Each structure stands twice: as structure tokens, then as C-alpha cells.
User: Fold this.
Amino acid sequence: MNCVNMPKLVIGDLEVSKPIIQGGMGVGISMSGLASAVANEGGIGVISTVGLGLLNKDKSIRFKEANKKSLIDEIRKARSLSRGVLGANLMVALSDYDEMLKVAFDEKLDIVFLGAGLPLKLPTDLSIEYLKASPTKVAIIVSSARAADLIFRTWSKNFHHVPDAVVVEGPLAGGHLGFKKAQIDDPAYKLEKIIPDVIKAIETYENEFGRSIPVIAAGGIYTGADIYKFIEMGARGVQMATRFVATHECDASIEFKEAYVNCTEDDITIIESPVGLPGRAIRNQFLDEVSAGIRKPFKCPWKCLKTCDFREAPYCIANALTNAQKGILHEGFTFAGANAYRVNEIISVKELFQILESEYEGCSIAKVEAQAVA
Assistant:
């Protein structure tokens, strides 16, 4: 019986054999090890640029310089390990966003994903002419059609150019969320509700610029059946992060990965981040102490986030996430998606792709059989 395999993801002249993007996870969770493994399986492997300098062992250089050096090193290491499609995830809210984006373009990454803020301006050292001539594609990460339209409308007006792709992140994602706390469990904000609105909003710009602009679903994507569902809805691909944490190639410590394997559904909780956003994480002793009002004193080595008031923050989120990456969980915590409790073993990236493809194929066969009966 003929069945439908996963379609390719096409972003301009960039062709990805599997429509799976590995979400960027900082601090140090998705670096060259995980990104190259995903790229080798035909997906898009993504290096998170957040806090890389905190993992740099050379303490003689300043954090911003350490961030840049570490990103260059990770990109080049990933390139040495894979000829597949590689990208970087950048947070617009980071104080060194401009510099890190310039590095990504200078290193000629295949694609950059811009989130955690609205990228309405271009960095001073990155002209629109340079951007247009670059082989590096630009994807924006949004949580609503309104945000997507604002970014596209601003780019169209000011630059006569628009991003190459849109990632729509729903409220089941891990880490910082682009929703108010009351919206997270509101059915009106489910990913299934947002995706059609974003697709419709982007059609205007596809017509204006005469090119296809893929919309990619993210947040709570866990199985091949989920991938099938959203592609049937009109998404061209998916972004997944939680599933990739419990892989051998993930750059996190074994303790970090085991937190996913051992957690229960009740352990997944919404926290109030020091940066003023709700976030989804796995509850542990550190978060219980913070919730009880216990402050975690720290010195701010550099103001990494534009919105952070380190004088009022109960703890340094950069330090907490760095500690977790290293396995020091009593001094940190793990961000995780809503489905993290479903993880029950650590497998290879190759095995994960095989599982997802098999599940996707099963859905396509079921559809063919249902059509035949009808």
C-alpha cells in the first residue's frame, strides 16, 4: 500500500529532508552535539546562543566576548560533525542579541530563529542589503497572528523584505512562554487555534512578495501523530525540544536528562521567572525554596537580559540554568515542555527520528485506509 512519508520542509532555496526542527534550548542544552546529530538525521539542528559564555572555561575574557567566541566555536564544531542543516536560536531580549546575530550571519549558518521579543529593528552592523544577500534564512518565533503580522508589516514597510519562515509556539512549550498565566490553560489559545490564524495572516505577505513562507508548529509536539496532525492543518513542519532532551547526544548533563525521565505529570509546573514571564519547568527543591520566599543571593557578572532587574530578582536564572546543565540541580532547575512526564528513557537521536517517522507513517496509512472504506 502506498503511504505518505514526511514531506520535505522548504524555506526559500533551503531544502530540509525532514520537517522537524530541534528547538533551541539554553543554557547549553542544545549545542553542537545535539544540533549536529539532528542535522545528520535530516532535520534542522539548532544551537541555542543563550548564556554560552557561562560555560566557557576561559575566565580571563569578558562574558560578551566569551559568548561570541563560544558561539563561533559551537557553530564550527557542528559543521565539522555534520553536513546537514544547522541553525541558531537567538533571544531578542538578550543584551548582546545584536552581536550574536551578526556572528550567526558571518558564520553563514543555514537559518536563525528569532524569539523572546519582537525583532522589529535590524542590528546596527547588519544592513538589509547584507541580510538579503546572505544565504542565512530568518525565521521568527511568535505566539499569535497579531505578533506575526506586526513583524511582517514592519519589515515590509521599512525594509521591503520579510522573514523567510514563522514558528508558532503554543502554550504547551517549555521554558519562557509568550502568554499571560491565565492564557496558558485557556482553550482559546491552544496551538490548534493559533496556527490557522497565523497561516491566514502570512498569506497576505506571500502574495505581496510572491514567495512561499512556511508556518511551523511548536509547543507540545511530542509524537509522529502530532506532526501529522499539524501538517494536515497546513503547517509545513514542526519544532520540537522536549523530546530531544532525553537523547544521548543532548549536551545537558545526565542528571538533567534523568529529571525528565523521572518526573511525573504533577511535577510539571508554571513558575514566575525573574525576567517577568511565566515559564514551564520541572518542580524540584530549588523551585520549592524560591516559591517559599527563600532568596538565592548572587552577583550579576553581566546584565544578560534587557528586562532583568538583578537587584530585585530572587535568584539569577542564568546561574540556575547553568547549574542544571552541569547537573547541579540543588542549585538550579530544568525547563521542560508540558509532555516531559511522558519521557521514560534516554535514546539516540537516530532512534527518536525512527520512532517519529514510524508514527507519522502509521497515521498516513490509517488515513488511506479510511478513505478506501469511504
